[in-house]
Design brief:
- The structure is a single chain.
- The protein is 21% helix and 27% strand.
- The chain is α+β, with helices and mostly antiparallel strands.
- The chain has a 4-stranded antiparallel beta sheet, with no helix packed on it. A 4-stranded antiparallel beta sheet has the order 3-2-5-8, with no helix packed on it.
- It is globular.
């Protein structure tokens, strides 16, 4: 299930922002430009599952054998004009062939015919044209082969990672997580305990349907994403309406167990997630550690709260000082 509320976040507390005025506030901060360039990728994988990071933050993950049919937009993770990094991480398919086709075996290493191909696309003005004819390919990449062969360079490995760079030109500039501290310098156990406590605090707000409190905690990064995606007031309103619906529905928070801590973005971003290769339950593969169950006319469903944090420079390591991305 797509977690729509995750577009809201925070870099500061603001007691004047609440559920009544947050949409007006955010819409008022988005500027109109002469052009609204947008960047996207078209990934095509073979014989693997994968994740994609842009500028060190997780953009996309695919843990099935499905191929992406539509381009994946990048602007949310492009903070300013200049060189950008894109990293893909490839993993073996495990027992997907058995699950989907009832044949084959569990695959624990990447195969000779594993591959990842990428096209990085620019739309000159996302507001006036975003069809196939408007796509400008600015970079292409195919995963490398072993020298003198047609065999994937990572064949036989349990994991493979590769980073490429590309240039982007955008009319805005967002600070994002760039003013965050290097979290690898903290004691690992202490850091994990603080991040878990912050997750639980936010989980309690969701459990108790404290909409205004969550808006004050989570609104600012929604503004960052809104600026990067040139969102209109109507778009903000639609996102907020779904967010509000999620917050106010009855839910049952689940225990946080069996997860692992992960650092991204030059160790400035931290999150708690379940393992991609060895989750405690296959249904939790690569998913956020904090989640809840709820019921609707179709039965019991699940929503995952994708909480990633950074710690601003000069701030002590406390749950309250962790800012959501």
């Amino acid at each position: 299930m797509i977690v729509l509320w995750s577009v809201f976040s925070c870099a500061q507390q603001n007691k004047d922002i609440n559920a009544t005025n947050v949409v007006d506030y955010m819409a008022a901060q988005v500027k109109t430009y002469d052009k609204h360039p947008m960047y996207a990728i078209r990934p095509l994988q073979n014989n693997c599952i994968f994740t994609i990071l842009v500028n060190g933050e997780l953009l996309y993950k695919e843990f099935t054998l499905e191929k992406a049919g539509t381009p994946i937009m990048l602007n949310s993770l492009i903070l300013k004009t200049g060189e950008q990094t894109l990293t893909y991480r490839l993993y073996p398919i495990g027992d997907l062939m058995v699950q989907e086709y009832g044949k084959g075996e569990t695959v624990t290493t990447l195969k000779k015919n594993t591959s990842m191909s990428l096209k990085i696309i620019r739309y000159d003005d996302f507001k006036t044209g975003r069809g196939l004819s408007d796509e400008i390919i600015i970079a292409e990449h195919t995963s490398p082969l072993k020298k003198g062969t047609r065999e994937f360079i990572g064949a036989g490995l349990p994991y493979y990672e590769h980073t490429i760079t590309f240039n982007a030109e955008v009319p805005y500039e967002n600070a994002g997580w760039t003013n965050g501290q290097d979290l690898s310098k903290f004691d690992e156990e202490e850091l994990e305990a603080v991040v878990k406590k912050r997750n639980l605090q936010i989980g309690n707000l969701y459990q108790n349907k404290e909409l205004d409190s969550l808006v004050r905690i989570e609104h600012v990064n929604g503004l960052m994403y809104g600026i990067a995606n040139y969102r209109t007031k109507e778009k903000f309103q639609g996102i907020f309406d779904r967010y509000k619906e999620d917050v106010l529905k009855d839910k049952e928070m689940q225990p946080m167990e069996g997860y692992q801590m992960e650092l991204y973005g030059e160790n400035r971003i931290v999150t708690l997630r379940y393992s991609i290769t060895n989750p405690p339950d296959p249904r939790l593969q690569g998913m956020p550690a904090l989640y809840y169950l709820y019921k609707d006319e179709y039965g019991t469903l699940v929503d995952f709260l994708s909480l990633t944090f950074y710690l601003p420079n000069g701030k002590a390591l406390t749950p309250e000082n962790l800012q959501i991305l």
